[in-house]
Amino acid sequence: MRVLLLNQAFYPDVVATAQIASNLAKELVERGHSVTVVASRRAYDDPRVQFPRKESWQGVRILRIPCLGLGKTTRWRRALNFASFLVSCVFLLLCLPAFDVVVGMTSPPLLSFVAALFTQLKGGAFVFWVMDLNPDEAVAAGWLREKSWVNRALARMLRHSLRQSERVVVLDRFMRERIRSKGVPGHKITIIPPWSHDEAAFCDPNARQVFRQDHGLSDKYVVMYSGNHSPCHPLDTLLEAAVRLADHPEIVFCFVGGGSEFEKVRRLAGTRGLSNVVCLPYQPLRKLAGSLSAADLHVVVMGDPFVGIVHPCKIYNILTVGTPFLYIGPRQSHIVDLVDSAPLNGSVRLAGHGDVEAVIQHILKSSQAGAAPRSAAAEHALAARFSQKVLAPQMVQTLESVVAVRGIPAPGPYGPSVQTR
């Protein structure tokens, strides 16, 4: 089976979609399939970093295309970055042959439309892997007016992608219902959550201590938000709690990652003189276990209007590490579904946006209780459900089932095999 995977970020980038896409590509190669990836030459969070134009990694053929690197400080800069990537992608795809299956992801927005047109032009099955949903996200964030001509045009492009796809893979039941509301039949939709990174995210007591020492966190109670800082995950309530807990020197708020809102956190800490706030960039995969294990309380945030549009994928690595977490967001959400599905022994705290007092009380009570014992992934039934070893093969089997309808047989059982031609 010849697979083409389209996503802006891929190995060695460290953002979530890059890691998930890299895991899938590696799994496909191990299964015996031929995999080509088209991604950006520029690193997702630091456009100054550029990767090789062509590369072979773990048996995966990577083709990286040029695009603008204007940063994310304004919407027009982001739009030009996205547009330049899509234009470069179109020109490259015109030079590529047909593939048995094309997997179109959602970074940049509406890359799926390009993938759909490619399969219409050259053949092959199109699988739409929805990591987030645009232009719905842009409307919910206030970047687009719902009745604007731009939104109507983008919505038509999304509907075309959904109609052209032979399978739509979504991340949770809320996203499934949102897709169904756009006229997609239920049998065409498959729920496969993004998985934890088994080889990189795990409880590591030694790396925890090293990370804490390196960043001045020893003997502190560390409240950590790790991952993409975006308007979809508003941090205002957590930041206000940090301001009001500035007179508790034993508590430190650690923000790790990047994104359009990361600079907002830096500015607030600087202008308010908050010595209890530490900002760190995305950590390389080799340090991910230490970074995640360094937290005493993780924070997961979901914006009220973004349920069913984006997915809180950071939760799976947190479950794997076994750290208690605080969820700030609406009660009707995937996180609450998880909490209700398994007993988590009081390791979860819930609060709504704007309820700063509840967030403060949760943090104070947690800090007074001290660092909670960690559990390995194998000992945590809920974490095991979202392991890469469980979910990545499901994604491979979904692609194989789509292609099998076209009469192309899949390889044998999982394990090394000769690549199909």
Any descriptors?
single chain; 421 residues; alpha/beta; 8-stranded mixed sheet; 6-stranded parallel sheet; 15 helices; 39% helix; disordered C terminus
Mind telling me the C-alpha Rg? 21 Å
H and E order: EHEEEHEHEHHEHEHEHEHEHEHEHEHHH
Q: Which residues form runs of ≥5 with pLDDT under 50?
A: 412-421
Number of strands: 14
Which sheet architecture does the biggest sheet show? 8 strands, mixed
- Neighbour order of strands in the largest sheet: 3-4-2-1-5-6-7-8
Oligomeric status: single chain
Q: Helical residue percent?
A: 25-40%
Gap between N and C termini, in Å? 7 Å
What percentage of the residues does DSSP assign to strands (E)?
15-25%
Structural class assignment? alpha/beta
Description of the structure:
It is a single chain. With 421 residues, the chain is of the alpha/beta class. 39% of the residues lie in helices and 17% in strands. β10, α9 and β11 form a beta-alpha-beta unit. The C terminus is likely disordered.
Layout of secondary structure:
Layout (H helix, E strand, L loop, with lengths): L1 E5 L9 H16 L2 E7 L13 E4 L2 E6 L9 H21 L5 E4 L6 H12 L2 E5 L6 H5 L8 H16 L2 E4 L2 H8 L8 E3 L13 H10 L6 E8 L7 H9 L6 E8 L3 H11 L4 E5 L6 H6 L3 E5 L12 H8 L3 E4 L5 H8 L6 E4 L4 H14 L11 H5 L2 H17 L17
Parallel strand pairs: 1-2, 1-5, 2-4, 5-6, 6-7, 7-8, 9-10, 9-12, 10-11, 12-13, 13-14
Antiparallel strand pairs: 3-4
